[in-house]
Design a protein that fits this description.
This protein is of the alpha/beta class. Helices cover about 25% and strands about 25% of the residues. A 6-stranded mixed beta sheet has the order 2-3-6-11-1-12, sandwiched between helices. Helix 3 links the parallel strand 2 and strand 3. The protein is globular, with a radius of gyration of 16 Å. It starts with a helix and ends with a strand.
């Protein structure tokens, strides 16, 4: 992933009204805590396969949720939640899209049935464009291990007349973009980009 890809991704998210917070993987819980409203539900972070094809380490203690995030919510807790926190398997810089997996952990409902979706994405899982995303997705689709939705910004529809946000998903999206500890040379510490800047 290049600096240009990261810049393109952040610019595209800004165009979509999505807030981006960046930081080292070791700051993950703090970055999520700042972005998540109450009550919040989530899915344990770290399962999956990175864009480079390597398995991610589900036991990576640096990429974790804050203790206040409920990771085994009941249906009532999911309905009452303001924020859902999930990771994304992949980010597509040119579109500002993230790949959300429908899995047994409940990633898809946690990302859809809330007012604010906080998405955790490792910078290493960011690809430039859709051909690269399909290169990542192809092998998983062929072996039947992938059930992925590419989400781009907050939910919006004009089916009811004027543009309505949150009709089919979250009204707000906040991306926490993580770089590996020790790889932050030249990157602003714990920086945030919003549509207001």
């Amino acid at each position: 992933m290049s600096v240009a890809d990261r810049s393109t991704f952040k610019r595209r998210l800004d165009d979509l009204g999505v807030t981006v917070t960046e930081g080292a993987a070791s700051e993950c819980a703090d970055l999520i805590d700042e972005a998540a409203g109450d009550p919040a539900v989530g899915v344990a972070l770290g399962d999956g396969v990175a864009a480079d094809g390597d398995a991610t380490d589900a036991t990576d203690a640096t990429v974790a949720l804050p203790d206040r995030i409920e990771t085994d919510p009941t249906t009532a807790e999911l309905r009452a939640a303001h924020t859902g926190v999930t990771d994304a398997e992949l980010g597509v810089a040119a579109y500002g899209s993230v790949a959300i997996e429908a899995d047994r952990a409940g990633t898809e409902p946690v990302s859809l049935f809330v007012d604010r979706h906080v998405v955790v994405l490792r910078e290493a899982d960011l690809v430039p464009d859709m051909p690269d995303a399909f290169e990542w997705l192809g092998p998983r689709a062929r072996d039947g291990s992938a059930d992925v939705v590419f989400a781009t910004g907050p939910s919006a529809t004009a089916d009811m007349g004027g543009l309505v946000h949150g009709a089919h998903g979250p009204k707000e999206v906040h991306v926490v973009l993580l770089w590996e500890d020790g790889e932050d040379d030249g990157k602003p510490a714990n920086s945030e980009v919003t549509g207001d800047e």
